[in-house]
Amino acid sequence: MVNETLGLLKDCQLPVERDNSQQHIAAIPQLSNLQVWFQRPKDIVKKLLSGDLDIGIVGFDTVSEFGQGNDDLIIVHNALGCGHCRLSLAIPKDGIFERINSVKELAQMSQWTAGKLLRVGTGLPNLACKFMKENGLKHVSFLTADGALEGFPQRGWADVILDLVSSGTPLMANNLKEIEGGTVLESQAFLVASRKSLIQWEDVRDTTRKILERVEAHLKADGQFKVTAYMSGSSVEEITERILSQPSLSGSQSPAVCQVFCQRDGKMVVDCYAIDICVPEKALYSSVQQLRAIGSSRVLVSPLTPRWQQLLAKLGL
């Protein structure tokens, strides 16, 4: 994600000055009190939590794996518009998996028992374990590794992999396929920060505000609008499939779908689903029309607005 992130910062008038690609520490001249560290994604989250870093740009997948649920990690911006990928389950195209085309079919295979575990190669074991349990795959073992995993099944190190996918080309080159229901999450770059640093240090807050203002200005210049819609359905996956089946919506930036609850007969139940989508201005009208065509009861449109006041409210400042 390095090149995309550097491109984003340059577009935001915050170019990073780095002598060469092997240099791990650099600077942004426009922010004199800022030092830029080039780190592995998971190390960025870990260093934010330990206090070694104050601000970071990292993918939603990494935030979810290494920082989700930790109150000291605060999301400053959740749609930077770069680093798009998905965390997805991929299986071999042939052999015992030749007729397997969905996670449901994978879970129903008789091969996986307490004595014969399904071996999953992944770099995100927490997300992988949660996904497998939720989909009825009980007899599973995980081989955790960083880097390219596509070759693991051919080498006999794993049966399947759960890895980040962008173009899908490496999967095809290694005779692997994605299957129905196998997408764990959609990811893009997030701007995150240490809550403690933001509360304790005014200069960290000031630098964060400057970065956030530049990012928001860049996104506004791109004519992006936030569209919020409410829709009834059976599941998050079913709603997402309906959204991505529409031409104007399938190219949107990582639609976010979440449950909306209400109280009925003294119990909290799912009432409907809320969808947040970022779309360019030229596709705004057609996107709204297509959302209504697939069953949206309410559609709200607003320009992407500065998040600074929202962030201060979260910090209690």
Automatic annotation (TrEMBL):
The keyword Lipid biosynthesis does not apply. Keywords: Amino-acid biosynthesis, Glycosyltransferase, Histidine biosynthesis, Transferase. One of its GO terms (molecular function) is ATP phosphoribosyltransferase activity. Pathway: Amino-acid biosynthesis; L-histidine biosynthesis; L-histidine from 5-phospho-alpha-D-ribose 1-diphosphate: step 1/9. One of its GO terms (biological process) is L-histidine biosynthetic process. Its EC number is 2.4.2.17. InterPro entries: ATP_PRibTrfase_cat, ATP_PRibTrfase_HisG, HisG_C. Residues 40-215 form the ATP phosphoribosyltransferase catalytic domain. Residues 222-305 form the Histidine biosynthesis HisG C-terminal domain. It is an enzyme of class 2 (transferase). It catalyses: 1-(5-phospho-beta-D-ribosyl)-ATP + diphosphate = 5-phospho-alpha-D-ribose 1-diphosphate + ATP. This is ATP phosphoribosyltransferase. It comes from Eucalyptus globulus (Tasmanian blue gum).
